[in-house]
Amino acid sequence: MKIALTGVKPTGILHIGNYFGAIKPAIELTKDYDTRYFIADYHALNIMKDPQALRESIREIAAGWLAAGLDPEKVIFYRQSSVPETFELTTILMAFTPKGLMNRAHAYKAALDKNIEKNEDADAGINMGLFTYPVLMAADILLFDADVVPVGRDQTQHVEMAADIAGAINYTYKKELLKIPQASVQDSVAVVPGLDGRKMSKSYGNTIPLFSSEKDLRKLIMRIVTNSQGVEEPKDPDSSQIFMIYKLFATAEEQSALRARYRGGMGWGEAKEELFRVVNRELTPLRNRFNEFVADPKKLDDILSGGAQKARAIASKTVMRLRAACGIQL
Ligand code: TRP
């Protein structure tokens, strides 16, 4: 089986956009690939300096992915920080990474451009973690012989950089030491609209959290922005974000029934009630499992430690292979 690997940066609360855009497709992939998924906690440290927030965010991701159905027997699921080989490989990769390559990385470039635009010192607020971010990410990937790396479009450049760095090492030592990874972006994944109609995103503050209480979930759904069409007026389902979200949760029959009600004229309030019903139906078991994990941090920790153990068995071999090739190991 081919190997698929991906990392999740723990920087906030999971929402239904993450669920349909990342979590569900990743779980689906476990059927056809040998999968390695991890929480990129040291990547998060670059931007999160509040220990309590970081800790909570790591738990949220771990509990969230497991509650959504990730099977730790099938997937190697671990925290990046529990695999110290990552950081040794990072050091090795640094010696093969041109600084110019890092200059072109988009996250760094965006920060730089912003400083220049604001007439600030070009390096203001930029730490080395941000600058070398793609090297750490390359280590995450190359350590585990990943064939494919499922990521969002914004991360493909980083995966290409990992492939470049691996190529440089293989070329230098005239040996296939590292597998060349490929990014895979799923274009078919639905864009989930947020409360205000724009793409659901933490940065827009328009999200529906995956694990909000039933009461909060209802409140949020009632806040979805609608137009001013009257109750009796026929409505177009395909231009309604209520309906777009509905499609993600409802059966085909439910969808055609709601379509017909839209066309016949139904109030937005009623449409939201129906949306809440199907969303809550799907999320209730997830929420219950999530709350169980949150109440039992030891169980969560045991699962992640088990994953780290399996991960390290693979990772240490990669590092040894490279040490030997480089001449570090006598
Ligand atoms: N940079 C990724 C993101 O922000 C997270 C990540 C870290 C990652 N290491 C990785 C993704 C390795 C894939 C493979 O989303």
Task: Detail the topology: elements first, then pairings.
Elements: E1 3-8, H1 16-29, E2 34-39, H2 41-45, H3 51-67, E3 76-79, H4 85-94, H5 99-103, H6 106-117, H7 128-131, H8 133-142, E4 148-150, H9 156-173, E5 182-184, H10 214-222, H11 241-249, H12 252-264, H13 268-295, H14 297-326
Parallel strand pairs: 1-2, 2-3, 4-5
Helix pairs in contact: 3-13, 4-8, 4-14, 8-9, 10-13, 11-13
Tryptophan (TRP) binds next to strand 1 and helix 8.
Characterize the structure shown.
The chain is mostly helical. It contains 14 helices and five strands. It has a three-stranded parallel sheet with strand order 1-2-3. A two-stranded parallel sheet has the order 4-5. β1 (3-8), α1 (16-29) and β2 (34-39) form a beta-alpha-beta unit. α4 runs parallel beside α14 (297-326), α10 (214-222) runs antiparallel to α13 and α11 (241-249) packs across α13. The radius of gyration is 22 Å and the shape is globular. The relative contact order is 0.15. The model has no long low-confidence stretch (mean pLDDT 95). It binds tryptophan (TRP). The site of tryptophan has 12 residues, from β1 and α8. Tryptophan is lined by residues 5-7, 9, 40, 43, 137, 140-141, 149, 151, 155.
